[in-house]
Amino acid sequence: MKTSTPQTLRRTALIIALSTAFPAFASENNNDQDPQKAKAERVIIKGDKPTTLPTEIPTTIEGINAKAIETTINALDAEDALKYLPSLLVRKRYDGDYNHAVLATRASGTGNSARSMVYADGILLSNLLGNGAGFTPRWGLVTPEEIQRVDVLYGPFSAAYAGNSVGAVVDYVTRMPEKFEGHVKLAGFTENFQEVATDKRYSGHQLSASLGNKQGAFSWWVNVNRMDSDSHPLVFTNKLLSAGTVSTAGKPVTGAVAGRNPQGLDWWLIGATTQYHTIQDHAKIKLAYEITPTVRASYTYGIWRNDMNSTADSYLRDASGAAVYSGDVNIAGRKFTINPTDIANSKNDLQHVTHGLSVKSNTKGEFDWEVAASLYDYQKDIARAPTVAIPAADTGGAGRITDGSGTGWNTLALKGIWRPNTEHTVEFGYQRDAYKLRTLVSNTTDWINGPASTRFSAFQGNSELSSFYAQDAWRINSDWKTIIGGRFEQWSAHDGALSNATTTLPFVKRDENAFSPKAALAYRANDDLTLKASIGRAVRNPTVSELYQGTVSTQTIVNNDPNLKAEKSWTSEWSAEQSLDNGKGLLRTTFFHEDTSDALYSQTNTLVTPNITNIQNVDKIRTNGLEIAYQASDVFVPGLDLASSMTYADSIITKNDKFVKSVGKWQPRVPKWRANFVASYRVDEQLSTTLGIRYSGRQYGSLDNSDVNAFTYLGFSSFLVADLRVRYKIDKQWTAAVGINNLNNKKYWAFHPYTQRSLVAELKFDY
What we know:
Radius of gyration: 27 Å
Number of helices: 3
Signal peptide: 1-26
Domain TonB-dependent receptor-like beta-barrel: 299-743
InterPro entries: Beta-barrel_TonB, Beta-barrel_TonB_sf, Plug_dom, Plug_dom_sf, TonB-dep_rcpt-like
Protein name: TonB-dependent receptor
Distance between the termini: 68 Å
Domain TonB-dependent receptor plug: 56-169
Strand content: over 45%
Largest sheet: 26 strands, antiparallel
Number of strands: 43
């Protein structure tokens, strides 16, 4: 027998590793991989669908369709559709979370909202006005019932997208009917939340209805949705033990709960705040007209309203048993001062509107084109909060009004596809994205209903990104294919200004150019195995809020770096995809690497005295990782479908001169391990059951990883959570489902607490 050499063994090991993975290139027309479909097969994406994805996909793509969502996921929000897809995590704190549900990807945490892009029917939903938990994608413009398909493109490998695609591009395609149809769905949900001194049930309900038809060349679709949701407390007011003065002064109180903060320091938790009661209304109208057999025009109008009231509870009680919300108090022999806004209420009144227009040809001949434009407008965006303590604030009193009306963004895209022969498909285009941020904070004598009076502060800024891109997909022969492309971008930031009560100071205009090359190569080793390698550069420019931060002090803007550099990432992946069991299964393994320079984070600059804490550039972050994804149908027994994924990411800060303590530490909010598992069993055509398991390893919230106590308010913890869903089709039109999210009632944190065990029930009628 011939002895294997070390070189042969290494080569064999490499082939085995590669054969466990790699999504094949989407070939003729787009290929859509639905990990949780009844059969593991590729689906042709019709060219007339309103997807933002390019025709040729030069990287890993995963997806899920409407049937799989309905069967396997207790979906109450659009982001729930992403729950079990590889390497993705949405920081959804409760059902109806509208302002902190940030998407995390392979090498980007939930603090990096500007490192991914989310679209719906070609309309940009990502809020690229800032980067962080407060700039969540506008998920409310899509409801679960209208989703036809969701595709996720991993990494910045397509020239068709800006540098914000460095993490992933999520593309929602919503329904357009082929005939008359109608749908109504009623859902209810409830959670028993127990944390610190809060023990209470929080519940809600959702009603959604859709109607559509296609008559000749004209089709239309209408969807309305209302969600009424009570969230558990998201913020716990606290006082560090060291901040108290040993004294007998202050009102003696009881009820404070002892604990430790993320840094392991002793503190008192004295109240629960940010208990949202939110009523969200969504309405959408979609129209489409086939101008000719090959040219289609479509228009989308969406409106989202949110009426939110946030309440607060104090844990503190005086000698008579009355709740204490402010003033000097004495806890266990130490005097603490509770400010009027420490335990406070708030209100939001929001109305956001979006428009989308597209005219697209689909001849599948030598040349096709598309013209698309979209607008997202903060038509009304009012936040109200008191500056006086509860209970005085319950009846009004002084406060502040934050008005974001006029904020928004618009996009324009001119796209072309040229097919000079069967070997080449060239895609090219021009894109312009413009962002406008307007924030005015005013004083008011009645925070609940009163008008704005004098200015307290203001903040504004604009940015624009104009881009030209091209990529050529060359089928070298039946086994080899390559895609080479590039993207040239012109970025501008202007009209920035910062104000206090009396002074407005402008920022200097910024203009920069960048070029991002892309390349990919695919090899079809045999009918069941495809190997692929991709590389791409991404330039993520500072957002308006990152660039125009700071405060006004003695006629000068301070705590601001007007020369922030753009994040620059080189990302690569090597992947293999193996078809299993005659097409009933897929196994993909992807090795990925990312080098990011000048990453944008809030940190303390220790090179200057006094130290300054603001948005700064972190010199270098390096990420190496492995992602394995598996899916199969009819495993062991007919009707049993499995889907699972595992992601390992070694993400380290390798250079940071301004904050040396962070060097060698893990990138914030990027866990070492992530994993998902979904088992769905179809008992018969009427009954299906699903068990889903989600795991995330330890995370850190700080650059120096000093937050060692993860399972507490402000901490970022690991979690292992199981979800159940049982769906029963009563007859042709009626369907019922019941589910449990967080079956094992895991208490886990991402700064705020996640949802504990909750019950979901649904009843749906389809015509």
